[in-house]
Specification:
The protein is an alpha/beta fold. It has helices spanning about 15-25, 45-55, 65-70, 80-85, 90-95, 135-145, 220-230, 235-240; strands spanning about 1-5, 30-35, 60, 100-105, 110, 125, 130-135, 150, 160-165, 170, 180-185, 190, 200-205, 210-215. The strands form four sheets. The chain has a five-stranded mixed β-sheet. The chain has a five-stranded mixed β-sheet with strand order 4-5-8-10-9, with helices on one face.
Length: about 250
C-alpha cells in the first residue's frame, strides 16, 4: 500500500504548512506532493520557502510562483513586491527549477490548475453568473491526454474528488493556506470553503485500487491573519479567519 499526501496553494502560510508536516509525520506519510502557488501572499514567503527547500518536497510551479519569477519588481502589486523583497536568491532559484507538471510513480499526474494551463480551473467553469462544475465527459478527456489514471490539481482552493470515466480519478486537495478568495478573472467570482481550516488530501493505492481521504486541520490561523493585516491585506485576513469571501 502506498500513501501520498497532496497539498496545494500554501500561499506563504507557514503556520498551516508546519501543521501539515506535523500531521503527515504523525501518520507516517513520507511522500508529499505540492501542487504549487507556494509563496505568494502577505504572510511568510521566506519562511515557507525555507521549509519547502529543506524538505525537498515533490513540487510543481503554480501561476503565482511563475509571476514571482517573471514580473518586474518595480511594476508589481504591493503584495507581490513584499513577496519578491522577502525572498533570497536561493528561493528564486528554487522556483526557477520547478516543472509546470510532473508524473509521480508513473500514474499520478501532478499540475497546478489543469494539465495544459496553470490558470484554468479543472473542475469549474466561470460564466458571467457564477461558478458551475464541468461535465464529467470534458474532465475525462483532459485526463486521458495525460497518460495517467490519477490527476492531482489545485488552484481553485476547493477540496474535491471526482470519479470519471474509464477508471479515471481527479483529486483536488483544496488549499493548505488560503480557504477562500475573490477573483476578477475570467469573471468576478468567489471560491470559499466556509471554515478557516488547512486542507489536504491523502491518496492511497492498495492493490491497484485508489482511495482518497480529505483532511481538515486546525492551526494558528489567527497568527496568519494578523500577519496579513499587518501587510495591508485585510481581505486576506478575513478570508483566513473565516473561510468566506465576497465580491464587495
Amino acid at each position: 500500500m502506498r500513501r501520498y499526501a497532496v497539498i496545494s496553494d500554501i500561499h506563504g502560510n507557514r503556520w498551516a504548512l508546519e501543521r501539515l508536516l506535523d500531521d503527515t509525520k504523525r501518520k507516517g506519510i513520507e511522500c508529499i506532493i505540492n501542487l504549487g502557488d507556494s509563496l505568494y501572499g502577505p504572510l511568510d514567503p521566506k519562511g515557507t520557502a525555507e521549509i519547502l527547500i529543506r524538505m525537498n518536497l515533490l513540487s510543481v510551479l503554480g501561476n503565482e510562483d511563475r509571476i514571482i519569477i517573471s514580473s518586474d519588481r518595480s511594476e508589481s502589486s504591493p503584495t507581490m513586491q513584499y513577496v519578491q523583497q522577502s525572498l533570497k536568491q536561493k528561493h528564486f532559484e528554487w522556483l526557477h527549477q520547478l516543472p509546470s507538471t510532473r508524473i509521480v510513480d508513473g500514474n499520478l499526474f501532478a499540475c497546478h490548475a489543469s494539465p495544459h494551463s496553470d490558470t484554468q480551473y479543472f473542475f469549474w467553469d466561470v460564466p458571467h453568473d457564477g461558478v458551475v462544475m464541468r461535465c464529467r465527459e470534458i474532465m475525462s478527456r483532459i485526463i486521458e491526454n495525460t497518460g495517467c489514471s490519477i490527476l492531482l490539481c489545485g488552484h481553485d482552493h476547493i477540496p474535491r474528488s471526482v470519479q470519471l470515466h474509464n477508471n479515471l480519478l481527479a483529486v483536488d486537495p483544496g488549499s493548505i493556506g488560503l480557504p477562500a478568495y475573490a477573483d476578477e478573472l475570467p469573471h468576478p467570482h468567489v471560491m470559499q470553503t466556509g471554515s478557516p481550516h488547512a486542507r489536504y488530501a491523502v491518496v492511497i493505492e492498495d492493490n491497484g485500487k485508489w482511495d482518497v481521504e480529505h483532511i481538515l486541520l486546525e492551526y494558528d490561523w489567527e497568527a496568519a491573519a494578523v500577519m496579513a493585516a499587518e501587510n495591508g491585506r485585510q481581505d486576506w485576513a478575513s478570508w483566513i479567519r473565516t473561510g468566506r469571501a465576497s465580491l464587495d
